[in-house]
Design goal:
elongated; four-stranded antiparallel sheet; alpha+beta; about 140 residues; single chain
């Protein structure tokens, strides 16, 4: 659902530019394909932060097209996306979440901060307050 497809374009400065159809704000670069893929994850997390700053729902990933590479997000990032999108669907602000959880503003902010690591247990608790539950599955790599 949130495994975003990225595409590479040769850059004049002897590297690869990275773009994502589902996250048009994403802009990244790598010296080679391997470096570009590793930089893409950071770029995705930074782009997701832009959506939070602008109070916009985060779009689901579309099916990859030929020539695209799929970036599989860490489970904690997917949980944050689910929490954020549920908040957006309810018109909730971060302060509303903090009140619902009985936590400080700093703690609540971190739950939807894609540049900060959160514990899965905290995200599960936040989702539970909103009547949601995390479901994790394991697939072949």
């Amino acid at each position: 659902m949130y495994d975003y497809a990225i595409r590479f374009e040769e850059d004049d400065s002897q590297g690869l530019a990275v773009f994502c159809r589902d996250l048009p704000e994403l802009n990244s670069f790598g010296e080679d394909k391997s470096h570009a893929i590793s930089e893409a994850l950071d770029a995705i997390e930074t782009t997701l932060s832009i959506y939070v700053d602008q109070r916009r729902a985060i779009p689901a990933a579309s099916e990859p097209q030929d020539g695209e590479h799929v970036v599989h997000l860490p489970a904690v990032v997917v949980a944050k996306i689910a929490l954020w999108n549920e908040m957006m669907s309810r018109g909730m602000r971060k302060a509303d979440l903090c009140r619902s959880l009985g936590v400080s503003q700093t703690q609540g902010d971190r739950l939807v901060d894609f540049l900060h690591t959160s514990k899965m247990e905290q995200l599960e608790s936040a989702l539970a307050v909103l009547g949601k539950r995390l479901s994790v599955s394991v697939e072949a790599a």
